Request: fold
Amino acid sequence: MRTFRMLISAGLLLAGATGALGGEAPAAAATCVACHGPKGVSANPEWPNLAGQHAGYLEIQIRAFRDGQRENPAMAPFVGKLSDKDIANLAAYYAGLPRGTAANGDASMVATGENLSAYCKACHGMQGVPAANVWPVIAGQQSVYLQKQLAAYKNGSRASAQMSTVVAPFGDDEFKALAAYYSQLKP
Ligand code: HEC
Ligand code: HEC
Reply:
């Protein structure tokens, strides 16, 4: 918790500096910077990039955290008081930032992940960027984050009818390989 607080004050300083230079981040984004980075690209492989993510998807997820359908102790304190309008503004802002490429997975598993990605393309697109605005871009996303989400769909701690069916036949080795592949894929 202490580390979070330190990160948050650093984030507030950064957000203040951006504001002074005329950045267009909504006020509600000031606290997000500490973990999701000043430009929506996170420095920690466990914390997702938000930059260039689809706005419709971001909006659904931030609401899910606020309303308790998606649970995470790191996120919960920062979204509880957001209005629907704040959430729509945050989603539009992050969707408009340039995407990053995390490329921080296990490089020796990229080829295996690429083979497995055949199971993902119907929904997440040929290059990890789906056509539907309410579905997530996974190309370039942080590797540990991706792996954890796949495991969460498998164990039911994150609910999605589509994803739980997809991950049912797979386990940690496949999740690690898929995360390695998608994290280095240029979105
Ligand atoms: C203390 C660190 C921290 C702060 C501050 C924080 N987040 Fe997060 N955020 C996380 C973590 C960790 C996750 C991954 C949660 C999980 O594993 O399900 C996450 C996940 C998310 C996701 C889901 C991304 C996806 O691809 O599904 C969104 C959207 C998000 N955060 C938006 C925000 C916004 C907007 C703010 C500011 C209002 C914020 N976060 C503040 C740590 C943080
Ligand atoms: C039938 C369509 C479909 C298929 C096939 C599919 N997905 Fe998904 N995926 C979705 C949907 C819809 C969501 C959003 C679910 C939610 O709201 O949590 C999602 C979410 C995700 C997320 C969470 C992203 C984030 O930012 O938190 C990851 C990671 C993911 N999918 C990876 C994969 C991988 C890897 C495969 C192939 C093994 C795959 N998906 C196949 C539809 C699909």
About this structure: The CA atoms of residues 6 and 164 lie 36 Å apart. Residues 6-23 have pLDDT under 50 and may be disordered. Residues 4, 28, 31-32, 34-36, 46-48, 50, 53, 58, 61-62, 72, 74-75, 78-79, 90, 136, 148 surround heme C (ligand 1) (CB under 6 Å). The radius of gyration is 16 Å.
